[in-house]
């Protein structure tokens, strides 16, 4: 393809993409294909001769479209959103065009310098404490995903605690043995509701992992007292807690750990690296009414949130902020001769390869820059507030049918979780000893065995309703289990989200709940 052909092809592709977005609400959000569908549609191996763009492009409709789950559809309400925007797509297009692997400053100064400045913009936008700005000892870097960030932080935490504990020992075999011995005792920690990425990071780092209890009666959030208890239990066994992921917006319910209490506790344990994972909910910090979460973060080591979830920057874009960039550089900076250059030696430039696991890196700041400038702070705030309001609207809807639904966690950052109540006992149905499921608060007033049975029934009917909605393919919702409670999660927070779609999914839920409970209540 030459540049002239590229011009034509790109125009056609953009036209097709714009049409896709114009019509996205009409598509069934979930595909109806069966596993392995795609292999049957394309040849077993790559073509010998190159094909025309027309032939290739036509396969978007024939091969790709039938198997797409439409994350940008307003009927997508599962997991967390993965938002896109046209300015971000343009940023990705330029990034693809320049296609540089900017690991060292000199490999493309614009890529490094724009990232540094734009990450400062983002830090200010979300009200992060100044310690995370690049003008001081901190700074921000864009990573692919929150999981990558957490591995990067956790491994750096592991190396930091070892460096600190063995700082008096001379280099040599004895120090290596001592480090190996320490590594075997290290414990990473996270809420029982922390995203699985923390446990995965501990596996990658070869450390132990302990969950901290975050019970329902504490809003599924980790308290400082329960973190302290786990730390003390570890220490009593001769283990060394060295890392904790505090969650700001847990995956299942958007719970926020007690950041203020944990910040106080952190002062007693300076060797424990505390990372705040705000993968989804962090975007809400663009609104001043959410920035009360920020001051405690000044006492922690690092913070991340995914602009690709809720802040209109296309996947992938996870912002990772660090209070002392030296903590990363001390772990990740290895400079073989082939990477040496006068600018690195001068100490005046940032080489982001020293802050991350991979060497090469894409020009991701461009799409962030485009989004921040296209929407402006006010536009981003309006975008977030719209979804917060949609969450509240949906929680309100559920509460209009308290005979059918029990809200488990009220709207938080746009996410609502709930259960379907089981059918009431029929007077002649042999269920007379069962508690009344129309009960408002299912955690009180029941006998212990009645409550256990009710919970079980509640979980079963909730799961059935959840499965029914997704099997219909029109809407995509997700579920989770927290502290033994099976919940349906609804979050409608992409660009196309509108109240009318929440009204529609609510009607489907009512129908499904009534059916599963055996006829209209
Ligand atoms: N942390 C939290 C709280 C999440 O909800 C998620 C995903 O939803 C992640 C981490 C992992 O995100 P990523 O896909 O960017 O690794």
UniProtKB/TrEMBL annotation:
Claim: DNA repair is one of the keywords in the record: no
Keywords: Decarboxylase, Lyase, Pyridoxal phosphate
Region Disordered, residue ranges: 422-450
GO molecular function: carboxy-lyase activity; pyridoxal phosphate binding
Pfam families per UniProt: Pyridoxal_deC
One GO location term (cellular component): cytoplasm
TM region positions: none
Modification N6-(pyridoxal phosphate)lysine, positions: 309
Cofactor field: pyridoxal 5'-phosphate
GO biological process terms held by the UniProt record: amino acid metabolic process; carboxylic acid metabolic process
InterPro entries reported in the protein's UniProt record: Aromatic_deC (IPR010977), PyrdxlP-dep_de-COase (IPR002129), PyrdxlP-dep_Trfase (IPR015424), PyrdxlP-dep_Trfase_major (IPR015421), PyrdxlP-dep_Trfase_small (IPR015422), Pyridoxal-P_BS (IPR021115)
Family under the similarity heading: Belongs to the group II decarboxylase family.
Name of the protein this chain belongs to: Aromatic-L-amino-acid decarboxylase
Organism: Epicoccum nigrum (Soil fungus)
